């Protein structure tokens, strides 16, 4: 079964738990690292996620996964916070974080450059738009973008 299909199934199975607990499902990853499979879910809530939140969610999700058994091979289940540099994936993320500084990475370089940083303007006609420090707007096709993350400044 393709990874993205498993991720979609897991997202659907976890959404009732996420809603019940008042959390947001930020991302689902299912991938092989070395010889082991990992199922990672990233959750968030206003004020941030605690270790206890992750444990409680993991226990509730484990019960559902044990009952439904959607993944044929053995895997490790990990639940965590998306962190300060959370990825922006959903349309709602681009609305919520409009005006925030983001780091954007492309699959293929434009003029020899694959990484860009700027203020998130948002999604316009399916394109991701950011504003550079000099005020110029940059527009990227969503399919050309590998990842958009909140920029972390120290």
Structure, explained:
The chain has 154 residues and is α+β, with helices and mostly antiparallel strands. 28% of the residues lie in helices and 40% in strands. It has a five-stranded antiparallel sheet with strand order 7-6-5-4-8. β1 and β2 form a beta hairpin. The longest helix has 19 residues. The radius of gyration is 17 Å and the shape is globular.
Q: Would you kindly provide a brief summary of this structure?
A:
This protein is 28% helix and 40% strand. The protein has three helices and eight strands, in the order H-E-E-H-E-H-E-E-E-E-E.
Question: What would the keywords be for this entry?
Answer:
alpha+beta; 8 strands; SH3 type barrels; GMP Synthetase, Chain A, domain 3; globular
The top-level CATH class of the largest domain is: Alpha Beta
* General form: globular
Uncertain spans, ≥5 residues at pLDDT below 50? none
Number of strands: 8
By CATH, the superfamily of the largest domain comes out as: RimP-like superfamily, N-terminal
Distance between the termini: 42 Å
Task: Give the SSE layout.
Blueprint (H helix, E strand, L loop, with lengths): L2 H19 L2 E10 L2 E9 L6 H18 L7 E5 L10 H6 L4 E10 L2 E12 L2 E5 L5 E5 L3 E6 L4
Parallel strand pairs: 2-3
Antiparallel strand pairs: 1-2, 4-5, 4-8, 5-6, 6-7
């Amino acid at each position: 079964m393709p990874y993205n299909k498993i991720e979609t199934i897991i997202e659907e199975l976890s959404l009732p738990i996420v809603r019940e607990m008042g959390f947001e499902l930020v991302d689902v990853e299912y991938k092989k690292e070395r010889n082991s499979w990992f199922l990672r879910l990233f959750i968030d809530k206003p004020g941030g996620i605690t270790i206890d939140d992750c444990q409680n969610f993991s226990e509730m999700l484990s019960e559902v996964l044990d009952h439904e058994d959607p993944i044929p091979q053995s895997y490790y289940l990990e639940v965590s916070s998306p962190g300060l540099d959370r990825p922006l994936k959903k349309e709602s993320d681009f609305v919520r974080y409009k005006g925030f500084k983001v780091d954007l990475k492309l699959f293929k370089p434009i003029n020899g450059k694959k990484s860009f940083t700027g203020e998130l303007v948002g999604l316009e006609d399916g394109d991701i738009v950011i504003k550079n420090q000099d005020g110029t707007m940059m527009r990227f096709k969503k399919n050309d973008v590998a990842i958009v993350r909140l920029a972390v400044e120290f």
